[in-house]
Backbone:
């Protein structure tokens, strides 16, 4: 439920009001209707979510508003009737104190020339989610950047993917990349950057997985030490010869009393510019030159959330907070900082940090944008919020479809709220454990209630189908075979183009896409060991000639297409007369091990060949044997360790029939929101319910305004409210043995939900 200052408590004695604004200008209306819905592909009695439906509405413009216009048709010029995609907002309340019902756009309209009737259909901003998204396949422990090094323990929680998809659509939990950005890591459950290259990553206290905690914006780094290189361009080449800004988001509301500090550092070899986050609540600008660290200025965290450190080439340092406070100091830079690109960026959130951090970025710009960040998402971590083991390649998938797929897998709910904020709520917050926003009774807010009770949603059992990632080889080297050529024969001047991709249910983790020519210096040992990618060929006359092709006789170029496709172009030069070129190794080559004799080429190796296999688990609760089975597909979105808990949770809700409330007529309260949990009480019955749809209608007749509001609810817990006298009247004749005989096969929950059913 929205919190609106001054909203009246007595809704029956206050005058209803409504404001519809078109492009920011209030307009008079005859009526307005807004419908919001929280859909689910699951049986209707299940309290989880799975999809998203746009909030929609219709505005009938007042005759006074229409008469001001010279036209009432869509032909010609003018500001009326509203055109498609113009911005519209609907606010409603009492006595001028109003709550937002819809932020959206006009999507169409209709009208009549004779009656001067004009209406507009409106919709929220769901169209923003129709963007293509591509994400490379990932492991929570990525292979080292250099063969034989340490794994990069990045972590990949489900929230990382939610955020990553949303950022592609203009929904930002942490600030968007600024102009001139050369490094950005939102740190929303993963150390993997959105710009830049991850060199190393681990927890702050040990070489292992980082830890993440819930933050106001989603998730933040609670124990992390990660290093990156920047993604430079000719205009922004990493030199501090133009203004540099380092920004990060600080979590000041996490309940755990951590004690560790944090740092965000841009390095020039041994020198640096650093933001320090002290455990006592200060943002500190630090400089190190020639091995000596000095403090330039500091600012208390206070009510700030986003902080930017701006450093100019002249040595002016300024810390700016999102709450408007600033502090400045001066300190000269080293010549290396202004003349050479920075070498790395390091983000460190000390183990059990007092102020966990996120949204780290480095940009070369003189315009502040990060501190003005207006968050347009509200994300709660997944019910099973720990890191996934792996994720498959995502290539040019529609963002909306991806989000629907993830929400369905997790039984999470998602929607665009009244202000256009993308909202994601995990299934645990949609259960009786969630906070109750209000109590609705016949004597206060309830007008009427329509319910339905049937067996249509009951299932005999629940089977969760999921995909398990496996690898045949866990390696720090690029030596997992991804592709081997077919040994084709080619003639002088011939060209061959081949597109190679992973097989079905397979992903490549960091394939070596820069093959070396066998025979070049330094290739013999790695080729023998199967480390890296190689090309080559054999020039043969079919008799005595059998040798490696020279560089002029064979060239191979590789081009990456998208996330998982390589275009391999093989070009044959001029061959000796009477010879052909075969894409294989010769019978023997000095230094090459015998097992590689006549091996087909080219050969591509990856750090890891990831394979996906189907698995299933069954929930612990069972319904009638003659009821259908509910099969729920989670794909790769839920960690295998969380599958059983999901199966048990889902099976508990479908093993018995539960009534649903189709429509609840209530006194209109415009603060109500989707996914509110309300307590509905009547006739000694107490129902805890999830709001899954809201329909608001406002009509004007002269100066009179009438409002109505209908809710659709899923019942998530019920207490019948029978008294001990009711129980005694029903079973007073029975002995304990008779009572036990009647109820022995049932659970306490069944007795609690309907204690008189066996009478």
Residues:
């Amino acid at each position: 439920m929205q919190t609106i200052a001054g909203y009246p408590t007595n809704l029956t004695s206050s005058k209803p009001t409504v404001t519809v604004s078109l492009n920011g200008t209030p307009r008079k209306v005859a009526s307005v209707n807004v419908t919001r819905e929280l859909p689910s592909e699951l049986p209707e009695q299940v309290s989880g979510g799975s999809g998203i439906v746009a909030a929609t509405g219709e505005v009938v413009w007042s005759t006074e508003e229409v008469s001001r216009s010279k036209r009432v048709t869509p032909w010609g010029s003018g500001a009326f009737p509203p055109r498609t995609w113009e911005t519209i907002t609907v606010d409603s309340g009492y006595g001028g104190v109003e709550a937002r019902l819809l932020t959206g756009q006009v999507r169409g309209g209709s009208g009549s020339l004779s009656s001067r009737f004009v209406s507009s259909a409106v919709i929220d901003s769901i169209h923003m989610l129709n963007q293509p998204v591509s994400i490379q396949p990932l492991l929570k422990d990525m292979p080292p950047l250099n063969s034989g090094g340490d794994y990069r323990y990045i972590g990949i929680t489900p929230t990382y993917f939610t955020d990553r998809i949303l950022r592609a659509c203009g929904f930002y939990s942490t600030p968007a990349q600024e102009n001139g950005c050369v490094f950005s890591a939102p740190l929303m459950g993963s150390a993997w950057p959105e710009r830049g290259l991850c060199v190393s990553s681990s927890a702050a206290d040990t070489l292992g997985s980082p830890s993440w905690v819930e933050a106001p914006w989603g998730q933040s780094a609670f124990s992390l030490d990660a290093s990156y290189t920047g993604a430079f361009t000719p205009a922004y080449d990493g030199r501090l010869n133009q203004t540099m800004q380092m920004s990060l988001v600080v979590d000041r509301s996490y309940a755990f009393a951590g004690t560790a500090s944090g740092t965000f550092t841009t390095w020039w070899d041994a020198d640096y510019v650093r933001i320090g986050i002290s455990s006592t609540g200060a943002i500190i600008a630090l400089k190190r030159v020639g091995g000596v660290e000095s403090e330039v200025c500091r600012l208390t965290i206070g009510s700030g959330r986003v902080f930017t450190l701006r450093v100019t080439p002249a040595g002016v340092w300024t810390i700016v907070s999102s709450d408007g406070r600033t502090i400045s100091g001066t300190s000269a830079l080293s010549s290396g900082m202004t003349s050479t690109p920075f070498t790395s960026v390091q983000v460190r959130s000390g183990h059990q940090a007092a102020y966990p951090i996120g949204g780290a970025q480095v940009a070369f710009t003189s315009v502040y944008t990060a501190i003005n960040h207006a968050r347009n998402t509200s994300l709660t971590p997944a019910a099973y919020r720990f890191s996934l083991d792996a994720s498959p390649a995502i290539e040019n998938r529609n963002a909306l479809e991806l989000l629907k797929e993830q929400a369905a897998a997790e039984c999470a709910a998602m929607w665009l709220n009244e202000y256009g904020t993308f909202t994601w709520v995990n299934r645990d917050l949609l259960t009786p454990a969630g906070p109750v926003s209000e109590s609705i009774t016949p004597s206060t807010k309830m007008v009427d209630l329509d319910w339905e009770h049937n067996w249509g949603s009951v299932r005999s059992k629940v089977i969760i189908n999921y995909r398990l990632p496996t690898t045949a080889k866990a390696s720090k080297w690029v030596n997992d075979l991804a592709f081997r050529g077919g040994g084709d024969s080619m003639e002088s001047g011939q060209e061959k183009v081949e597109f190679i991709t992973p097989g079905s249910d397979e992903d490549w983790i960091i394939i070596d896409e820069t093959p070396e020519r066998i025979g070049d210096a330094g290739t013999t040992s790695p080729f023998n060991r199967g480390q890296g990618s190689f090309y080559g060929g054999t020039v043969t006359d079919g008799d005595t000639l059998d040798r490696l092709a020279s560089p002029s006789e064979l060239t191979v170029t590789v081009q990456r297409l998208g996330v998982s496709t390589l275009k391999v172009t093989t070009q044959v030069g001029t061959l000796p007369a009477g010879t052909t070129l075969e894409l294989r190794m010769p019978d023997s080559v000095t230094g090459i091990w015998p097992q590689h004799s006549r091996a087909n080429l080219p050969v591509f190796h990856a750090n890891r060949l990831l394979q996906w296999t189907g698995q299933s688990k069954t929930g612990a609760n069972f319904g009638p044997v003659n009821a259908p089975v509910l099969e729920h597909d989670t794909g790769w979105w839920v960690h295998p360790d969380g599958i059983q808990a999901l199966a048990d949770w889902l099976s508990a809700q479908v093993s018995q029939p539960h009534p649903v409330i189709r429509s609840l007529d209530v006194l209109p309260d415009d603060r109500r929101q989707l996914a509110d949990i309300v307590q509905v009480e009547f006739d000694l019955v107490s129902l805890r319910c999830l709001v899954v749809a809201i329909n608001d209608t406002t009509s004007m007749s002269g100066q009179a305004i009438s409002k109505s509001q209908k809710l659709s609810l899923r019942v998530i817990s019920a207490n019948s409210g029978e008294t001990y006298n009711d129980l005694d009247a029903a079973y007073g004749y029975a002995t304990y043995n008779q009572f036990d005989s009647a109820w022995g096969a049932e659970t306490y929950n069944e007795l609690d939900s309907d204690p008189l059913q066996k009478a």
